[in-house]
Amino acid sequence: MVKLNKDYTKLDEDYLFFEIEKRAAFFVKKSLCNLGIGDITLAIPEVITEAICSATKELQEEKTLRGYGPSQGYLFLREAIQKNEYINIPITEDEIFVQNGIKNAISSLQDLFCKTSYVAVCDPTYPVYVDSNVMAGRENIEYLPCLEENGFLPTLPQKNVDLIYICSPNNPTGVAFTRKDLKKWVDFAKKQNALIFFDGAYEAFITSDDVPHSIYEIPGADEVAIEFRSFSKSAGFTGLRCSYLVLPKKLKTEDGFSIHKFYKRHIDTKYGGTSYPIQRGAERCFTEDGKKALERNLNIYRSGAKMLREGLISLDYKVFGGTHSPYIWCKTKNEMSSWDFFDLLLKKAQIIAIPGSGFGRCGEGFIRFSAFANQKTIETALNNLEKVTL
Amino acid sequence: MVKLNKDYTKLDEDYLFFEIEKRAAFFVKKSLCNLGIGDITLAIPEVITEAICSATKELQEEKTLRGYGPSQGYLFLREAIQKNEYINIPITEDEIFVQNGIKNAISSLQDLFCKTSYVAVCDPTYPVYVDSNVMAGRENIEYLPCLEENGFLPTLPQKNVDLIYICSPNNPTGVAFTRKDLKKWVDFAKKQNALIFFDGAYEAFITSDDVPHSIYEIPGADEVAIEFRSFSKSAGFTGLRCSYLVLPKKLKTEDGFSIHKFYKRHIDTKYGGTSYPIQRGAERCFTEDGKKALERNLNIYRSGAKMLREGLISLDYKVFGGTHSPYIWCKTKNEMSSWDFFDLLLKKAQIIAIPGSGFGRCGEGFIRFSAFANQKTIETALNNLEKVTL
Predict the structure, then answer these.
(1) DSSP readout, A288-325?
(2) Which of A78, A256, B57, B319 has the fewest Cβ atoms nearer than 10 Å?
(3) Which stretches within B172-251 are classed as H helix?
(4) According to the model, what pLDDT value does residue B1 have?
(5) Considering only CA atoms, which of A274, A277, A295 is closest in space to residue A286?
(6) What pLDDT is attached to residue B25?
(7) Which of A207, A217, A229 is nearest to A181 (CA)?
(8) Interface test with B, best of A59, A66, A118, A126 (most B CBs within 10 A)
């Protein structure tokens, strides 16, 4: 009989967010303040749902029917992305790949590279980066500590590395790389001949000119970086599923292979494309009315993050992030562990948050709050928290 | 710099269907009779598009908004599948996993198993089975010849094998396994402790009671088989994207691991779920009005397959399949090679078909016609073909 790929046994039993669901399952869900998983809570603007319905109705007529779409995504969407997100940046529509979500894309892309590659990830980090590399049998993983003393920004790796995962604005810490910070990493990758996986899932939350939205704003990044973007957080597509990645044609492996070419081969074999009506919904995000509607929602989330951040500070918590990000990284009090603080929040304040240690060892002593919640939930959470004595 | 995963260099340059697109690109597309890639051509029934639009509109209201869905798919759809497709078969909703397409599911599932596993595939076969195993570094691939003399049904492997890919009704040959044929394989898998990947993408085309729709109709198959199904061909979802797989909890690896448990871990890490409105569209396929509408479309495709099959026979071609399948497997005349016949059909008869040799060595000398075309296209194709002198 077939044997298991033993690399799978090296994973934790459960994916982090399911462990949290399990623990929360003992409470009445409706009375809990969910500041846990980063899922959207504001309705999707009508301008977007209309675009999806209108595209769906095209399929009920033979003359406008569409079957299999291009595995790379429809040109209309790739052009809209290029024209709106990569103005004055040397990225062409042919370097954009539309997909079903960053999780799927970023966890599969590593398959293209040699199994003995050295990988650098931040600690704490989004668990998918590490888990997908463990599943692929990679053992050479360098964890880059992101600590209070370095402002939660990683320091450059000590060893030679081949693949570097960077997420900015960061999940879970909410901290964003400035242009200067990011340039240091692009220069390092060039010098080291390393490839950066740049996860920009939260770029819509950036509020300062000093923080780049795209890694390609840094000169030369198109020789060393692949960028991931999503409609999940910017447009509420967590349940609709649409994302994209940017893979410049200039990218070559050390052994001289075009990464673009092999990635195309990879998706042609392993990927059936993204739902057509959903791609039309994503396209609508770039029209004037689409942009306005999304901006209204983003502003509500931003206000929520501000309220949560300031509320926590007024309760004497030390907090980070929450400015360019929907996430607030909060230090526990009295050196309480992340999971103890999680249990306390759940039992005494009816709050779900995500224990920092779930994102890596260096996350111990912290908890992640998500501001994807309505104002009332955040207010209730802060009121409940005020009553908790530590 | 990161090096390429060298297993990728063992693949053909282009995925088969893109090579065909390239060759067809020199012709005016509108005047070609496309009997090539198996893509639907009939409009999607309104009852389905309505379900998708109605679910989409739920998302524009906060009280009916849904964000991230369960990675395994919504219970409403898994229950509908179980109640309609697995009546009197010991499969529970918890053993069903909703996904974006069989291609993605079947190409990823092999990741769960040991890299040195022995794989058996039919020759000819759907290229994704082989390519995904090559990408994973598997070198022990046994090709099972499916030839005219064995009715295009594979004979049992000579060596010990761990993973067996079976597609019935078959792509590309259009031939279906009877209950007796399939039982032989289930028994073999049991004896050998092998795991069967059973691709049932075309089960909706089965017209005889003698041909099982599900491998689990064979007693004991739930100990040795994973089944893949899709809404692509049965309901026209090629552009909408929805499929599912059935993974019984009884399945264990030789080393005693629960495949269900590790697959759940796999998708939790690597998969963000299927679009909610599309899952509602799929659910609607199982209502009375949904079933009727789909049956109408299927009957049109079936008539097309019959017309094409009979037309080819009347032109003295030797054909197989086309009864339980939208595909007709046609022998070339005068021992012409598959690609020569492809070029001839393209240049002299304005027909696109798929060269049999593209599906494997044993496909040489054959061509695959798809009956996913309207009646007029099939008529024109047959008329054009009649004029071709060989």
Answers:
(1) HHHHHHHHHHHHHHHHHHHHHHHHHHHTT--EEE-SSS
(2) A256
(3) 179-192, 232-235
(4) 67
(5) A295
(6) 81
(7) A217
(8) A59
- Cα B310 from chain centre: 24
Select from A119, A223, A131, A121 the least CA-distant residue to A161.
Answer: A119
Percent of chain A with pLDDT over 70: 99
> By CA distance, what is A74's nearest residue in B?
B239
In the β-sheet with B119-123, what is the strand arrangement from edge to edge? Answer: B96-99, B243-246, B225-230, B195-199, B163-167, B119-123, B141-145
Q: Quick one: pLDDT band at residue A37, thresholds 50, 70, 90?
A: confident
Q: Identify whether the C-beta of residue A51 lies closer than 8 Å to the C-beta of residue A280.
A: yes
Q: Could you tell me if A239 lies within 8 Å of chain B, comparing CB atoms?
A: yes
Q: How far is B129 from chain A (nearest CA, A)?
A: 9
Residue B39 to residue A67, Cβ atoms within 8 A: yes
The helix (H) or strand (E) run that includes residue B228 is: strand B225-230
Q: What pTM was estimated for this model as a whole? A: 0.96
CA angle B157, B161, B162 (to 5 degrees): 145
This model of the complex carries an ipTM of 0.96
Contacts of B276 in chain A (CB under 8 A): 239-240
Q: What angle do CA A152, A155, A160 make, to 5 degrees?
A: 140
Q: Do B239 and A43 touch (CB under 8 A)?
A: no
Indicate the SS3 state at residue A185. Answer: helix
Ramachandran angles phi, psi of A65, nearest 5°? -65, 145
| Phi, psi (deg, nearest 5) at residue B368 | -105, 125
Interface residue A252 vs chain B (CB under 8 A): yes
Nearest to A309 by CA among A296, A334, A326, A297: A326
Q: Are the C-beta atoms of residues A215 and A227 closer than 8 Å to each other?
A: yes
Is residue A64 within 8 Å of residue A352, measured between CB atoms? no
B63 closest CA partner among A175, A257, A43, A311:
A43
Please name each of the domains of chain A with its CATH number: 6-44+289-386 (3.90.1150.10), 67-284 (3.40.640.10)
- Which backbone phi and psi does A368 adopt, to 5 degrees? -105, 125
Interface of A with B in 191-230 (CB under 8 A): 192-195
Q: What is the secondary structure of B57-93 as a DSSP string? A: HHTTSGGG---SPPTT--HHHHHHHHHHH-TTSS--G
Do the Cβ atoms of B331 and B185 come closer than 8 Å? no
pLDDT tens figures, B357-388: 999 999 999 999 999 999 999 999 999 999 98
Q: List the structure tokens of A205.
A: 């939350």
